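In the previous chapter we treated chains in isolation. Here, by contrast, the input contains two separate entities that must be folded as one system, with a combined length of 430 residues.
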Amino acid sequence: MIQVQQLHKEFEKTKVLNDVHFHVRKGSIYGLLGSNGAGKTTLLRTVAGILKQSRGEVSVLEENVFENESIKQRMVFLPDTLYFLPHYTVRQMADFYKEIYENWNEERFQKLNELFGLDVNKKIQQFSKGMQRQVAFWLSMSVMPDVLVLDEPFDGLDAVMRKKIRNLIVQDVADREMTVLISSHNLREVEDLCDFIGILHKGEILLERDLDDLKADIHKIQVAFKGDMNAALESELNILHKEHRGSIQLLIVRGEEEQVTSLIQSHQPLVFDRLPLTLEEIFIYEMGGVGYAIENILV
Amino acid sequence: MFELDLRSRKPIYEQLVEKLKQLIIHDVLKADEKLPSVRELAQQLTINPNTIQKAYRELESQGYIYSVKGRGSFVHPVEKDANEEEMKKVREELKKLFSEAIYLGMTAEEIHALLYEVERGKEDDSSTATS
């Protein structure tokens, strides 16, 4: 659906994206994560066909995206800073969209009006920041896009609106197999929404995986033994991180759940607790393992 | 139908599998009953449809449900000994818990009493799942 290969992007002499590969399947909700300045926005703008790549391939719906109008008909990009034509009301803006997008769905637009409850005859610029974002979603979802690219979509929205918008996205993914690419540095936001995660750091993709798989093979373990931990056990486990808290040890272990559990059980622990990790924690430890300090990833 | 704990550390997909299993085991979802469609559930719970699909696939491979093309997923009528694989897992889990209980000083009588209680339906875990 979205395929990016060996993508390089330079502005003047500044390298922003360096050999980026990634792939978003049809009907998937893909979370692109990364630190500030990692190149997320540049990557999204390239995928949206606004920026031309310096080298490499960017295809959406199996076609090269740059200046490809037929693809752009079926794709909506919602940038982090929104733009509306000056002094336009919601209705005028909607008419503008209607003219541009063949798939504009007026019925949908009216229905969403009830959901958002905003005045269509008010100038958009008189709305608050969060309301403007609602307008942007309202317009985007009325276009019935096959591909939705969102840059920091939930900024400035209250909890109720966030949930409403997530619900909208989820419905379209279920109904029409819409493909969604979301960039965010809010890990908790993407954790329950996305099924696939890619991490961008300093213009390179560090990791790209199914979120459940990622979670399935890394565990936080609290364990205590009579005396010290067996050295044999320690070498058998793939330990990413170790911490002593009194006599209890906190381990971050990579590996299959069953294997790890049976291995530890076989050494008769006095205390044994296994906790799945949150995405935030996975980040910290995985990145720590590659030598990236936590401050670089979490913002 | 049920709620998920989005703040829990457990992956949503695992939570889904467990909740649905519980509903099936406790006969809240009857044999051959149709499960909610992926779409309905995604909307109800505001979670990724792909996650639900994955949970359904997992339940299917474990033999709890079956799917009919174009019609959806249905609860598989449980045959008592068909779930050998699951039984093995449960047995292992029980063993683990028993050894923990014994270590903590629980007597065999106390464990018996607990079992009796569960059989009589006094400690009813399903009440939370069905509400």
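Residues 11 and 54 of chain A are 9 Å apart (CA to CA). Chain A has a mean pLDDT of 88. Compare these points with the single-chain example from earlier in the chapter.
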